[in-house]
Design a protein that fits this description.
heterodimer, A: 260 residues, alpha/beta, six-stranded mixed sheet, four-stranded antiparallel sheet, globular, B: 313 residues, mainly alpha, MetI-like fold, two-stranded antiparallel ribbon, 4% strand, binds adenosine-5'-triphosphate, binds magnesium ion
Chain lengths: 260, 313
């Protein structure tokens, strides 16, 4: 095990993360710490590498340089006799199973009902009993306001409803960390509110969240810290007030000016 | 006919919503369609009458031989070969499809080579090849390539007509099924595999629970085709002395010279089996269509009602 249990160690620690696609560098040395219970909102223009960075955290993408630790474990690698070795697929799956993810396109399993979507991973990956998983799933669906649709199929739901189910599905694995990649970008304006409300209540309950979004309002109200990315780098970070009201970097300023 | 501008004039102030309520719309009676139905039914009935009354079809002979032990035995051979060859073909085809799509170069090359060879050569030749394997390789042994052997068998003991038929049909089928299954797997949104991965599912589990059930929608219809082709393809095994359905009726008419009636016996059996398969296929398709917007509506209504009843209590 590579567990380095320094007290107060951040839950997520990314150091000098580099990532290139076909020799084009998309991430150029990202450093980011996220403490347990913290809500971090990542802002940035299209193509700045926000999604790529998020996907590196649960190893949907491999990284070329640097390191990422979640909950004291290095993602994708293991130190053995002083040498760093890639983890087996199974070990990587275990690491991922503790990180919840919500996608822009919801990605619910269309052949399963709402309830089946939510209990799939708890039963199949975490080995919980069916009864336990169903009880918990019903509670979570109630929490996101979807109790009345437990037996519906995803295609029979509105986008906002689908995304709320997707959030319940991610919560059902009892994640130590939740990743949101533009959860409201595929939604009609009138449906954005219901999803943001759900996310805000999660933030209030102390869930550790990294949220990529273009919703400045959500960043202002729910974020503990705002990170602004541009061109594969973290350009500016700080409290919502500092970054959103008094941006220091000209790139941040010009990006935010579009939202006023 | 009323045009868009007409109602204002014709109905005056009575532009009430009721008149345009689509719920009140009804389809006009079409005499042309009715006539067409009558003509088609008449032609069909006439054709059936002619066939039934034509003595050359020899219906009494058909009836007499329909359940003849030789025919029934042939039917069993045909069905047995079809089921076994198809089952092996689907299982092997799934493995080949997964291998071909894997990022492992060795696996995908071996799979491509297999598919290339078995789709590229006639089934008849493959059957004869397996049947006559002993002339090429008198002995089959297990061992290290170019090294010592651990066990060996006489090929003729190993390859009976039945095994030759099954191996030949199954390997050929696997090559076709591999491509059908690969097409199905490719038809599933990539986000699904990614989501399964993000939730910590293993590859195998993601395939079994998430990808394959969705791929089935596009795998089932061509597989139904394959199954029906297979039933008829089994008649090729008569070249390696297997008595399938067609071979059995041939053996009878070679004796009795009642060619047409005996062929009718085979045709009716083939049609009977195919009809049953069609029914089965529809049921399977309906199963894998659940979750589609149109398909699941009825089910959901029921579910909704159940929830409402629960809430009422
Ligand atoms: N799989 C891939 N192959 C090649 N290039 C990629 C791939 N994924 C992302 N990229 C490129 O990496 C860059 C960063 O993409 P990314 O999706 O991380 O941006 P983003 O900040 O999330 O943008 P958006 O706000 O539009 O979602 C883009 O230029 C994109 O074209
Ligand atoms: Mg993105």
């Amino acid at each position: 095990m590579t567990t380095s249990s320094i007290d107060q160690a951040p839950l997520v620690r990314a150091r000098n993360v580099h990532k290139a696609f076909h020799h084009v560098e998309v991430l150029k040395g990202i450093d980011l710490d996220v403490k347990a219970g913290e809500v971090v909102v990542i802002l940035g223009p299209s193509g700045s590498g926000k999604s790529t960075f998020l996907r590196c955290i649960n190893r949907l993408e491999t990284i070329d340089k640097g390191s990422i630790f979640v909950d004291g474990e290095q993602i994708g690698y293991q130190l053995r006799n002083g040498k760093l070795q890639p983890l087996s697929n199974r070990a990587i799956a275990t690491q991922r199973s503790k990180i919840g993810m919500v996608f822009q396109q919801f990605n619910l399993y269309p052949h399963m009902t709402v309830l089946q979507n939510v209990i799939e991973a708890p039963i199949g990956v975490h080995g919980r009993s069916r009864d336990e998983a169903i009880t918990e799933a019903r509670e979570l669906l109630a929490k996101v306001g979807m109790s009345h649709k437990v037996n519906a199929y995803p295609r029979q739901l509105s986008g906002g409803q689908q995304q709320r189910v997707a959030i319940a599905r991610a919560l059902a694995i009892r994640p130590t960390l939740m990743l949101f990649d533009e959860p409201t970008s595929a939604l009609d304006p009138e449906l954005v509110g219901e999803v943001l409300t759900t996310m805000r209540s999660l933030a209030d309950q102390g869930l550790t969240m990294i949220v990529v979004t273009h919703e400045i309002g959500f960043a202002r109200e729910a974020a503990d810290r705002v990170v602004f990315m541009d061109g594969g780098r973290v350009v500016e970070e700080g409290s919502p007030e500092a970054v959103l009201e008094n941006p220091r970097h000209p790139r941040t300023r010009s990006f935010l000016s579009r939202f006023i | 006919m009323s045009t868009l501008s007409a109602p204002g004039k014709e109905e005056g102030a009575r532009m009430d919503a009721d008149l345009y309520d689509v719920a009140r719309a009804h389809h006009p009676f079409r005499p042309g369609r009715l006539l067409l139905w009558v003509v088609v039914l008449a032609v069909a009935a006439n054709f059936a009458y002619i066939v039934a009354n034509n003595p050359n079809f020899g219906w009494p002979v058909v009836a007499a031989y329909f359940f003849d032990p030789t025919v029934i035995h042939g039917l069993y051979v045909t069905l047995g070969l079809t089921v076994v060859a198809m089952a092996i073909g689907i299982a092997l085809g799934l493995l080949l499809a997964i291998a071909r799509m894997s990022s492992d170069r060795l696996a995908s090359s071996v799979s491509s080579l297999f598919i290339w060879f078995f789709r590229g050569t006639p089934l008849l030749v493959q059957l004869i090849f397996w049947y006559n394997l002993s002339t090429l390789f008198p002995e089959i042994s297990i061992g290290i390539p170019f090294g010592p052997t651990f066990a060996s068998w006489n090929t003729n003991d190993l390859i009976s007509p039945v095994t030759a038929a099954i191996v030949g049909l199954a390997l050929n089928e696997a090559a076709y099924m591999a491509e059908i299954i690969r097409g199905g797997l490719l038809s599933v949104d990539k986000g699904q595999a990614e989501t399964a991965e993000a939730f910590g599912m293993t590859r195998a589990r993601a395939l079994r629970r998430i990808i394959i059930p969705q791929a089935m929608r596009s795998i089932v219809p061509p597989t139904g085709n394959q199954l029906i082709s297979m039933i008829k393809a089994t008649s090729l095994v008569s070249v390696i002395a297997m008595a399938d359905l067609l071979y059995s009726v041939q053996s009878i008419y070679n004796r009795t010279f009642e060619v047409m009636p005996m062929l009718l016996v085979a045709v009716l059996w083939y049609l009977f089996i195919t009809s049953i398969l069609n029914v089965g296929q529809s049921a399977i398709e309906r199963h894998y269509n659940r979750g589609e917007r149109d398909a699941a509506v009825r089910k959901d209504d029921a579910a909704e009602k159940a929830v409402q009843q629960e809430d009422a209590r």
